[in-house]
Design goal:
- The protein has 2 domains: 2-77, no CATH class; 81-129, no CATH class.
- It has helices at 28-42, 45-57, 68-77; strands spanning 2-5, 9-12, 81-82, 84-89, 92-96, 103-108, 111-113, 128-129.
- Helices cover 28% and strands 23% of the residues.
- It is an alpha+beta fold.
- A hairpin with a 2-residue loop joins strand 4 and strand 5 (92-96).
- Strands 4-5-6-7 form a 4-stranded antiparallel β-sheet, with no helix packed on it. A two-stranded antiparallel ribbon has the order 1-2.
């Protein structure tokens, strides 16, 4: 897979598998994001500065979007992380975001209450993996 940045700079990434999951349960989107993160980390700072200069010529002036760490952070947030189950009382649990600990939903005596099984944390934007929770509503 090749990503082009303007006319003169391109970035070759490893091809991702064309199956739903790899041997470790990662989806193709997760594999692609991980490959992009690795590739961006390996871009020489001088080349990255050229990419930023070309982006500015194209009218992209948002400093946040032109920072390598922010790009990597945004890609990492798209890789789902398992929600954390925290005991909050007798037969009651809170399910929280693994990044910011924001409560997503609660469960009392097996009943889901006060929240939803969202795919992303509404507080920090982290993609969430609910695969280990029982009886998703």
């Amino acid at each position: 897979m090749t990503f082009r940045f303007g006319e003169h700079i391109s970035l070759d990434l490893p091809k991702t598998v064309s199956i739903e999951n790899d041997d470790f349960g990662n989806t193709v989107a997760q594999i692609t994001n991980k490959a992009m993160i690795k590739a961006i980390e390996q871009i020489d700072d001088a080349i990255f500065n050229e990419i930023v200069a070309m982006a500015r010529l194209e009218g992209i002036d948002d400093i946040y979007l032109l920072d390598k760490k922010n790009i990597i952070s945004a890609l990492e947030k798209q890789i789902p992380k398992k929600v954390e189950k925290i005991k909050s009382g007798f037969k009651s649990f809170n399910y929280v975001c693994p990044e910011c600990a924001y409560r997503q939903i609660s469960q009392i005596e097996g009943e889901w209450i006060a929240g939803q099984h969202y795919n992303y944390c509404s507080n920090c934007g982290q993609a969430l993996d609910w695969s280990d929770t029982n009886d998703k509503q």
